[in-house]
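ARCHIVE CARD
CATEGORY: sequence design from structure
SOURCE FIELD: tokenized fold
FIELD CONTENT:
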């Protein structure tokens, strides 16, 4: 398949890549704790999560990040 404007396609792909990289960096801090305190803090948060009133907001933000990438149909 050939693109009509390869430069435009590269620009769109680059913006998606940069956005995904930034999102990954911020999420990575919560996935891999930097020290023992952060590991303890994350474990406490995970234990309390089912009882917190804002658990829906967290799930919504995860879904929003996962569906942020929209690809064009060619």
């Amino acid at each position: 398949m050939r693109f009509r404007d390869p430069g435009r396609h590269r620009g769109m792909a680059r913006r998606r890549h940069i956005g995904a990289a930034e999102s990954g960096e911020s999420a990575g801090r919560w996935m891999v704790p930097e020290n023992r305190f952060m590991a303890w803090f994350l474990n406490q948060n995970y234990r309390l999560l089912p009882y917190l009133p804002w658990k829906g907001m967290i799930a919504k933000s995860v879904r929003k990040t996962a569906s942020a990438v929209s690809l064009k149909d060619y």
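CARD ANNOTATION: The radius of gyration is 18 Å. The chain has a mean pLDDT of 75.
SHELF: design records, drawer C
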